[in-house]
């Protein structure tokens, strides 16, 4: 009897403690990462935008009131899972005890085919493999929820059209596509000589990587394909940000950038049909209650 009484008291206390707050629950969180959650909603003080919460499984978020005139949404960033945007959130009431469950899904994987034009093939292939691995590391550990799937690495060093295009830039992108090769509906990356720049995003799923590229150049051009612009001299963004042109040791991507990679219609995730959820137009320079500041960042854990 005493055991049952103690159990009953424990249940009542738990109910009282949990019933006085609202909660966010993250399900299917691979690796039990300490996810970054941005919350928009209405508090007693008024509308709040991009409140930052850390959630592993369930977190108390105080009292989120019914939406009223406020934007109400939740964005979850995590390693090993796709970014999730839940909008609008309609479960909040003026009373407490509401729980929003966000089901996380697998990484979104953009597909890419590689055309190795600069020889020796084995050397450039090894460089491309390292560049792909670095891109996957950055976009995952920086909580973008994005990966890059290699469909093929083609040896084009002996292609009869390669010599004439070995120093091509975006002005010859159509020639690369027509003469070297191109797979529609995915990114196509051409490794060639041109020492004039480390890389180019040419649009139309076309990326050029030059001989002077560093290990982050491919990831940088992927960023352009995912709708991001350069971040040189943007307040709040360090010179080690991936999208700094001409940068070295580029090792960071902000949550604001990750959000745009996912939701912008111009991102190839959406244009190529990898992501099928609703899009949102958030240029780099736009900050409002539906577009987090580009420089909004939370240190990954």
Write the layout of secondary structure elements.
Blueprint: H1 2-19, E1 23-27, E2 35-43, E3 46-55, E4 58-60, E5 73-77, E6 84-86, E7 99-103, E8 108-116, H2 121-141, E9 146-155, H3 162-165, H4 173-180, E10 187-191, E11 199-203, E12 206-209, H5 217-225, H6 255-263, H7 268-271
Parallel strand pairs: 1-7, 8-9, 8-10, 10-12
Antiparallel strand pairs: 1-4, 2-3, 2-5, 5-6, 11-12
Helix pairs in contact: 2-5
Summarize, please:
With 301 residues, this protein is an alpha/beta fold. The protein contains seven helices and twelve strands.
Task: Describe what this molecule looks like in 3D.
- With 301 residues, this protein is α/β, with parallel strands linked by helices.
- The chain is built from seven helices and twelve strands.
- The strands form three sheets. The chain has a five-stranded mixed sheet with strand order 9-8-10-12-11, sandwiched between helices.
- It is elongated.
- 40% of the residues are buried.
List keywords for this structure.
about 25% helix; four-stranded antiparallel beta sheet; alpha/beta; five-stranded mixed beta sheet; 12 strands; about 300 residues
Task: Average the pLDDT over all residues and give the rounded result.
Answer: 93
What low-confidence regions span 5 or more consecutive residues with pLDDT below 50?
1-18
Helical content band: 10-25%
N-end to C-end Cα span: 45 Å
Question: What proportion strand?
Answer: 15-25%
Gyration radius from CA atoms, angstroms: 23 Å
The neighbouring-strand order within the major sheet is: 9-8-10-12-11
Total count of helical runs of at least 4 residues: 7
SSE order: HEEEEEEEEHEHHEEEHHH
Overall structural class, as computed from helix and strand content, comes to: alpha/beta
Question: Which descriptor suits the 3D outline?
Answer: elongated
Main sheet summary: 5 strands, mixed
According to DSSP, the number of beta strands is: 12
């Amino acid at each position: 009897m005493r055991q049952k009484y103690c159990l009953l008291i424990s249940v009542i206390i738990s109910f009282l403690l949990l019933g006085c707050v609202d909660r966010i629950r993250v399900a299917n969180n691979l690796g039990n990462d300490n996810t970054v959650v941005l919350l928009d909603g209405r508090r007693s003080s008024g509308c709040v935008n991009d409140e930052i919460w850390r959630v592993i499984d369930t977190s108390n978020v105080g009292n989120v009131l019914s939406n009223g005139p406020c934007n109400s949404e939740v964005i979850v960033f995590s390693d090993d899972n796709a970014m999730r945007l839940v909008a609008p959130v309609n479960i909040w009431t003026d009373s407490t005890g509401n729980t929003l469950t966000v089901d996380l899904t697998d990484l979104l994987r953009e597909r890419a085919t590689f055309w190795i034009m600069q020889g020796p093939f084995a050397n450039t292939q090894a460089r491309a493999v390292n560049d792909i691995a670095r891109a996957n590391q950055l976009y995952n550990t920086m909580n973008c929820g994005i990966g890059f799937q290699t469909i093929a690495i083609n040896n084009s060093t002996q292609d009869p059209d390669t010599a004439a295009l070995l120093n091509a830039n975006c002005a010859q992108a159509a020639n690369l596509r027509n003469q070297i090769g191109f797979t529609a509906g995915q990114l196509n990356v051409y490794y060639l000589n041109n020492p004039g720049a480390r890389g180019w995003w040419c649009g139309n799923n076309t990326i050029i990587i030059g001989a002077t590229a560093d290990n982050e150049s491919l990831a940088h051009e992927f960023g352009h394909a995912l709708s991001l612009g350069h971040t040189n001299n943007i307040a709040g963004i360090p010179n080690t940000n991936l999208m700094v042109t001409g940068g070295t040791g580029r090792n960071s991507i902000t949550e604001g950038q990750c959000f745009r990679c996912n939701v912008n219609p111009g991102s190839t995730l959406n244009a190529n049909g990898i992501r099928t959820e609703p899009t949102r137009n958030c240029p780099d320079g736009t900050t409002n209650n539906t577009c987090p500041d580009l420089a909004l960042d939370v240190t990954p854990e």
